[in-house]
Amino acid sequence: MDFAPVIQPLIHALWYLIPLAILGGIIQSPQFKGWVGESLVNLSARLFLDKNTYHLIRNVTLPTEDGTTQIDHIIVSPFGVFVVETKNMQGWIFGSARQRYWTQKIYKHSQKFQNPLHQNYKHVKTLQALLGLSDTQVHSVVVFVGDATFKTEMPGNVTRGGGYLRFIKSHQDIVLSAEEVSEIVEKIASGRLKASFKTHREHVKHVQSIVEEKENAVRCPKCQGDMVRRVVKRGENVGKEFWGCSAFPRCRGMLSLQPE
């Protein structure tokens, strides 16, 4: 039976659904959500921070010993250098400054993600090494955009929406001279990798290798921290090896060591 007479009218009537489906997939992708979040932070910084005092630098990729690190936004001012990490997420967010992983909960579904303060720590230290600045001159800021609600008390430098602007403006002690501000902007411009498809591709590849390494690593069943090999020191299993949490004695998670 020839179905062409039936299918062709359907294609002509519903052709517009194909680009809509593609557009929907793009909008739901993590890459697009990340771009939207960064764009919102970029726009609000340009609108509500005095450009003569605060110098905004976007999407800075810096070389590191093991690859590259990419910083969403750097804001340079006499009151310090603010390193801004953006998260476009929704749902309930649970976490604390010291936890290795935070939790996102949407209805009954929960998933863990890396503590963004830990993620931004590498950005801060890489920038400090490039600029030769102290801890009092560089500030880490994490901003959540999107429909996210904090369900645990967060540190002052973890904010929602425009809260990051209030955090930045709360710093009023001058720690950098006008000359130092200009030098920092120039150093970042000369030290960053050229913005190109190749630079982005290599950075993504580096991040993917880190993610794969973490996924394959043995994690503590209690706190999701690193596990280390330990040896039983007493009892009937003395001398046998097992996986013990690196945070012992604060965390007493353990796993049996699978024979090789």
Strand content: 25-35%
Name the helix and strand elements from N-terminus to C-terminus, one letter apiece.
HHHEEEEEEHEEEHHHEEE
| Unreliably modeled segments | none
Number of helical segments with 4 or more residues: 7
Distance between the termini: 59 Å
Instruction: Work out the helicity level.
Output: 25-40%
Shape type:
globular
Give an overview of the whole structure.
By secondary structure, this protein is of the alpha/beta class. Helix content is 38%, strand content 28%. The chain is built from 7 helices and 12 strands. The protein has helices spanning 4-14, 17-28, 30-48, 116-131, 163-169, 178-191, 197-216, and strands at 55-64, 67-77, 80-88, 91-94, 101-106, 109-114, 138-145, 148-150, 158-160, 227-231, 241-245, 254-256. The strands form 3 sheets. It has a 5-stranded mixed beta sheet with strand order 1-2-3-7-9, with helices on both faces. A 4-stranded mixed beta sheet has the order 6-5-4-8. A 3-stranded antiparallel beta sheet has the order 10-11-12, with no helix packed on it. The longest helix is centred in the last third of the chain and has 20 residues, at 197-216. The N and C termini lie far apart (59 Å). 20% of the residues are buried.
Give me some keywords for this one.
alpha/beta; 7 helices; globular; 5-stranded mixed β-sheet; 260 residues; 12 strands; 38% helix; 4-stranded mixed β-sheet
